[in-house]
Design brief:
The protein is mostly helical. The protein is built from 11 helices and no strands. Helix content is 65%, strand content 0%.
């Protein structure tokens, strides 16, 4: 019995690895893997990403055009190929490689009230609330959160002198933290207090928490905890937690060295 089960498992695994292809699946038409490395064009990161984004869009549009063409012409074999390739493309994650807070740098100043920036920020905030309306993770609209991130980043990119850039960085940091992209979240929290040293948002506390709890860079977290306790508006529980961590980190109860 055990041998039979093992055989069945091996068959299933083989099907997964090879793929379940029926007649006229087009396997012979797969493009061969390039034998040589394609030469890389010298360009800036922004230029490479822009060209890649354009190529991604064109690739999708041409695949959709092929699907429409084969549907109209009744070529069901090639229609199946095109639909399969489009389905695989839709399942493939595509990254946005530009991190706006990194591009913007630490030297911006949140100082001017700009109507357009205020409107864009308010729009992003409404989208964020809509995405989180049920406040239960399985029901949070993560795609809408990504749209929201794009809006907050637009505030930073398009209106770098706006007094909303620290707020946008804080809100974006919270979304990155939700997705467990802690290094990016940390950067956005840091930018918020770099851009507005007197920001009303508890960004030093947030940055310290990530450094301490997730990145284990406690030597960097300690002064931020101390600044947060002295200057930021925290809840009773947050203040209690911060004081506890300061005591633990300053009394030698824990190593301040980064975990290896």
């Amino acid at each position: 019995m055990a041998k039979t089960i093992l055989t069945l498992l091996l068959i299933v695994l083989l099907n997964v690895l090879v793929g379940c292809y029926g007649p006229d699946s087009g396997r012979s038409q797969f493009l061969p893997t390039p034998m040589k490395t394609v030469s890389v064009v010298e360009a800036s990161e922004a230029d490479i990403i822009e060209h890649m984004a354009t190529s991604r869009l064109a690739y999708r549009q041409y695949l959709e055009s092929l699907v429409a063409y084969y549907k109209k012409g009744g070529d069901n074999m090639k229609l199946g190929w095109a639909e399969d390739e489009l389905k695989r493309l839709n399942r493939m994650p595509q990254y946005s490689y530009i991190i706006e807070a990194s591009v913007a740098g630490p030297d911006l100043k949140a100082k001017d009230s700009i109507n357009e920036a205020n409107y864009l920020y308010d729009e992003a905030y409404r989208l964020e609330k809509a995405a989180k309306r049920l406040l239960v993770k399985p029901f949070i609209d993560e795609n809408l959160l990504r749209v929201t991130l794009d809006k907050y980043n637009q505030v930073i990119k398009q209106y770098p002198a706006s007094d909303k850039i620290d707020d946008a960085a804080y809100r974006a940091g919270g979304i990155y933290e939700y997705f467990k992209d802690y290094t990016i979240a940390l950067l956005y929290y840091q930018r918020a207090y770099q851009w507005d040293n007197a920001t009303a948002n508890p960004v030093r506390y947030k940055a310290a928490y990530i450094l301490d709890q997730y990145l284990h860079r406690r030597a960097e977290a300690l002064p931020l905890y101390q600044q947060a306790l002295g200057n930021e508006k925290l809840s009773k529980n947050e203040r209690k937690f911060v004081q506890k961590r300061i005591d633990e980190l300053t009394k030698g109860g824990e190593s301040l060295e980064e975990d290896k």
